[in-house]
Design brief:
single chain; alpha+beta; Herpes Virus-1; Alpha-Beta Plaits; 4 domains; four-stranded antiparallel beta sheet; three-stranded antiparallel beta sheet; 49% helix; 13% strand; rod-shaped; Znf_FYVE_PHD; Znf_RING/FYVE/PHD; coiled coil
Length: 313
């Protein structure tokens, strides 16, 4: 290892700071710098000056044409600093973008959570809709079954009334003899009946406004019942059937028809109303069934339930 003398204290040294102006080696403490500080200078050691050279350089006139390496390096640094100045603005913009991105990320996270919750609710609603659809299907099946049962019950009930006729318009008397009344009506329509042909005869409550109870006559034979109604209808074609004409008190009109169930009575009323709207000329009951026909040559329509009303639209 080379041995030098310190340019400040003239003592020997093996390592120290090197002045690039006077070209002398100096102890670190003589140079006024620590060894660690000198080592950290890196490439700047190539332009390092001792304190004497710094003072000598500072006393030189400004017009000196000499350009110090440090001055040149400072200009370069300033030029670089000017070029890097926009980077500060860019750094600020990047910081704002990062902040906005963080906010957006947080917002998206919240939105994703809301979307997941919304999807969960949709799935729950869809599941409920499936249940409702199944219930609706079951309800439809139940309604169809009930309609079928009601139609079956109505058919059975009407069948029990097949031999019955219903007489309306006869005023009620506490001392009346219903067998005598039916006999007088039979004589008027030229279709006499005896007690032996009648199973029972009675008055039943009425839902009509006048509260006059109609008379129900149950014949033992269906043919007798049908013949009695046919004779009554044939009679009224010439003149209305009244109590006075039948040797009965008053002068009220008498109506003789099949003894229909409540369901069939309601259906007959709706049929007559619909037929009037659609210009159907004929609506009648035969064998306890409702019939309709638009003209004399039109086909006959049989109505069993309200769904059949569409046939006369």
């Amino acid at each position: 290892m080379n041995s030098y003398k310190c340019g400040a204290c003239d003592e020997s040294l093996s390592d120290g700071a090197h002045c690039t102006i006077c070209n002398q080696e100096l102890h670190f403490h003589c140079a006024g710098i620590t060894e660690a500080g000198y080592r950290k200078l890196g490439d700047r050691r190539l332009t390092w000056r001792c304190s004497k050279c710094k003072i000598s350089n500072a006393s030189q006139p400004p017009s000196s044409p000499r350009i110090e390496p440090e001055s040149l390096n400072l200009k370069e640094i300033r030029a670089i600093a000017q070029k890097l100045a926009p980077l500060e603005t860019l750094r600020h913009e990047i910081t704002e973008l990062r902040s906005e991105f963080a906010d957006l990320k947080s917002s998206l996270s919240e939105t994703n959570t809301e979307i997941k919750e919304f999807n969960g609710k949709i799935k729950e609603i869809e599941a409920r809709l499936l249940q409702v659809e199944k219930v609706v299907e079951q309800v439809d099946l139940i309604h169809a079954r009930l309609d079928k049962l009601e139609e079956g019950n109505n058919t059975k009930e009407q069948w029990t009334r097949m031999n019955n006729i219903e007489i309306k318009g006869l005023p009620q008397n506490n001392h009346e003899n219903l067998f005598d009344i039916i006999g007088k009506i039979g004589a008027k329509i030229s279709y006499p009946v005896s007690k032996a042909q009648i199973n029972f005869i009675t008055r039943v409550p009425s839902r009509e406004k006048d509260h006059t109870k109609p008379i129900i006559v149950c014949f033992l034979n269906l043919n007798v019942k049908e013949g009695f109604i046919a004779a009554a209808r044939l009679t009224v074609k010439t003149a209305p059937l009244t109590t006075g004409q039948s040797d009965l008190p008053g002068n009220q009109r008498i109506f003789i028809n099949d003894h229909l169930t409540l369901h069939n009575k309601a259906l007959l009323s709706k049929t007559k109303k619909m037929a009037a709207e659609m210009d159907f000329r004929y609506v009648w009951v035969k064998h306890s069934k409702i019939h309709a026909r638009k003209t004399e040559i039109s086909p006959t329509i049989v109505l069993k339930n309200e769904k059949d009303l569409i046939k006369i639209k």
